[in-house]
Amino acid sequence: MKSFLSDDEFDLVVELVNIGVGKSAASLSQIAGEEVLLCVPILEFLTLDDATHVFEERLPSSLTGVSQEFSGFFSGKAALLFPESRSLDLVNVMLGGDDFDGEVDVELEEEALSELGNILLNNCLSTISNILNKPLATLLPHTFHTQPARLVNQLVPKESAETVIMLLKIDFCLKSRNLSGHVVFVIDFTENGSFKDTLQDYLRSLEEL
């Protein structure tokens, strides 16, 4: 579902997200002490009804995530999702690539996830904000554990017919390990008509160059 965006608007969103993810890769490479490659092979827009079905079909049965609310010319919530079973790998990456033996300390896991979410989600949001020259404010991220069937309720406190889910699949590639995760943006277009207008204004400015 991308009918509410033109092909040019959709392509612009994909480009903006890829730039933001690229900046995240550079930051994560410094933390991990090795090159981190991030790519976004899939980006799609879903209705709330479709989202639950897609989540159950594609996502692992147990999820660890970090979410962050944002507001401005478009508002909503962004979430970074990983299989709960890969928590140890995430902690290792955020500890600079050192192997961490034993059970994952809950507090350490939450700190690592929050930092990872802060880097990745903030880079995506700030890139969109900076390139489109529109301000966005963000709240502090928080971690959570859930299942795909409950994810929509976790991320969408107030459902609306105009609420849209933007789902991105993100592949993390390190020399020592491969991780695959998802980023979800929840956007209510009844409150965010200016998002589409901003995309159109930016595309018009490119035509005038």
What's the topology here?
Elements (H helix, E strand, L loop, with lengths): L6 H26 L3 E12 H11 L4 E10 L3 E8 L3 H8 L11 H27 L3 E3 L3 E5 L1 H8 L7 E12 L3 E11 L4 H15 L2
Antiparallel strand pairs: 1-6, 2-3, 2-4, 2-5, 3-7, 6-7
Helix pairs in contact: 1-4, 1-6, 2-5, 3-4
Which class do the helix and strand fractions yield? alpha+beta
Unreliable residue stretches: none
Q: Which band does the percent of strand residues land in?
A: 25-35%
Total DSSP helices: 6
Which descriptor suits the 3D outline? globular
Q: Distance between termini? A: 31 Å
Number of strands: 7
Q: Give the mean pLDDT.
A: 81
Task: Summarize the biggest pleated sheet.
Answer: 7 strands, antiparallel
> Can you write the helix and strand succession as a string?
HEHEEHHEEHEEH
Instruction: Return Rg in Å.
Output: 17 Å
State the helical fraction.
40-55%
